[in-house]
Amino acid sequence: MWSVPRLDVLGAVAAACILATPQQQAPAPGVELLVERIQEKYRQTELQAHFVQSRLSRLGSVMTTVEGTLYISTPGRMRWEYRTNGQLLVAGGPGRETYLYLPEDNVVQVIQSSLANTSEMPILYLAGRGNLRRDFDIRVVEWGVPLSRGNVQLELRPRRSGAAFERLILEVDPLQATITRLVTYDNLRNTLDYQFHDVQFDPGLSDELFEFDIPEGAYVIHIGG
After folding, report:
1. 5 lies in a domain?
2. Phi, psi of 122 (to 5 degrees)
3. Strand 219-223 versus strand 107-111 pairing type
């Protein structure tokens, strides 16, 4: 069995809400506008996409890869279905618990709402939560070969001291204001690379996708309770 460590599945569960650093760098006007368009699009719409999630070594080589389907819906709800290993991550929205189901072990990790936020789970920015311009210093970088010609790669460094991650990389399609890649770097030197393909906006998702019933007999682990 390939078992995803908790930090892997949660996207290197990162960033803590702490004191603001005294110096903040404003992004260039064009970058500011692009980030605003992305924020509004992901905050107001629902989407479905195929994802490929890779764990990278410190040298950048791929160590493990899993894939599946991602569903996002307002307000800030997510569902990650891992086709590779059958695992499931369901975030029911602000103020609600998040569930990670490991079917081969029949284990459910219940992440309390106090941890299920952008300060602890940067993948929730994909669901329009948080505020990218407020939370990060942002600049254009050349991180690697873009997934598509014309894509823009942005480096996001948290504006709060004591964060549990160093930076994020967003690769975006500037014409469509869509995120095609998210890379997370945490302070433990874990690096996760998420790539998104076949993105469909407003596919008509049911509310049931973002509900989770703990299977009978499952061993339940409460995190943050």
Report:
1. no
2. -60, -20
3. parallel
